[in-house]
Predict the structure.
Amino acid sequence: MHLRALAIDALGLVAPRSVAIQDWRLLILLQALRGLVAFYVLYSLINGKTYLQQEVPHGTISNIGTSTEYFDGLVDKHAFHAPSDGATTTVTASNGVSRTFDLMPCSDATAIDAAYKFNRSFGFEFDHLMCAFLDSDELVREFPSGGIFVTTHVYYKLVYRNYLSGGSAATCAADTSGLTVGSNPIFTNEGVSYTVPLRKKLGDVCYYSKEFSYLPVAPEAIEIRIDHTYDTASGVKAGTNPPVYVRRAGSDVDIKTFAAGESVRLTVEEILEAVGVDLDKRYAEIDSVNELFGQGVDAANTPKIRTGGMRVIAKMLYYNYNLDGKRSATGSHEPYAVLELTPRLAWTTLGQDVTHRVPIEGELAEPVSFGSGNSGRPKDNYYSDWERYGIYVEVSSAGIIATFNLVYFVNVLVSGLVLFGVSQILCILMATTCFGARSKMYSRMLYERTHFERNIAAYGVQAIIAAQIFKNSGKTDALTVDDLTDLLESAFSQSKDAEKGANVVVDAKRAFSRDELKQMAYYIIRSGNFEAVEKYKEKRLHLGVDEVHDKTINMNEFIDLATSGAIDVPLVKSIIHSNGVGQIEDSTPSPAAAA
């Protein structure tokens, strides 16, 4: 076969045949299903953004807590504040911006103790509270993990260990009033000695301790500065300090925004306002189901937040293309961050921070061992325990960073096309099962049944009819182009017999002209003449007009063209010989066999 013919056969389009069922019920169902599929595809692309390849970025957080003009001014206000001055004060920074803060009654020991004291458990009775005028460096603790702690309450314990010279049988003094280190009292403050009671005796060691509760002033004026970077595993996106939107978790309201390149700067007060928390309210006043009750007189109470501390979960979530879920618009491919703040009301402490101290006179004592020292017994020693309660801001990172992916986009479109096909299949099932007698007709139209013998029989009948038509043409050997044109004219053109066709009206749109019928005759010669067919098979070239005009079509060619389809002469011959000439399939037993 010619190469051109092979190429055309290889590249030819094979398309399925469809049957159009004209039924308004099926039309409505099909259009409704297609509408749903179109909505699904558009929703996936626009709102679901399924064309994006998404990944979770890795963020690195660094922070620092610093003093502000408001902090210094508020500490100064507390130092000279009396309860009669009011519960709030206004501090004005050098830029002219003023802010109002709550004040603690630092000059009234009874009032401050009554407001904040709390009995947490044995050994942790927070009473006799007093204000502490500490610097910001003493209040803030930063962590490499990205968290930051701001102290609001210090539980300070001072312990003196006195080793009895008489061994375990000796008795401890009731307090330290009679004890000295050399010629100095055990506990002094600005030259004034004070008495510390005995707490316990273990072996030959007497423990004397005193507890203090301090409330640092102005922790809410501490400013927390956060710098952050992000990158993705794919390496497509990376950056430092993108735009940040501060929100409370679950809300789409931007409390504060920071432009690209800016550090996040929030005071403790701004963070507390964002999460709806007041340091001077109890846990249960903020969270009604909070049951972190104390003991004794506080068995039915929860602590105030300034006393017990709290956590703030700060999630730095990186997004682009508006993937934070608050907007359906595509948005920019440039990443931004959403800082979500969530309050957690619970006892929050950095734990014990123990420091061993050297006595006023003598060498440094061994603080741990109960064995004998250089002089035959351990030296008396002190240790202090500085336990901080406060606000721990736990900063972590997550989010979704995406890039456009052509494969994902094509997959969405392909899934839509597949669903279009499924909707058509559902309509076909309905057409063939739900409409009674019509369903039987639709089923036969959609699923053509092939019967071996019936199809061959139909082929033979078609050949007989074609032969009869050929004979009726008056031509016994072959039909020329003009003969075929005359036959076609008799079939399609308006009758020329005035007597028989006077009442016959043929629409001009449905009648062919002589030239049009001649062109149709050319097609018949091209498709029926065996020589023309062979030429087309070999070279995929049709006969020209002049060549066709000189060609004819005989009866065999005419019959072959009239019966063209799935069955032809070679196929019928092959089937007949495969069954055996003179043999037919018969499933009915003969009378002799039946007898």
Residues 370-374 have pLDDT under 50 and may be disordered.
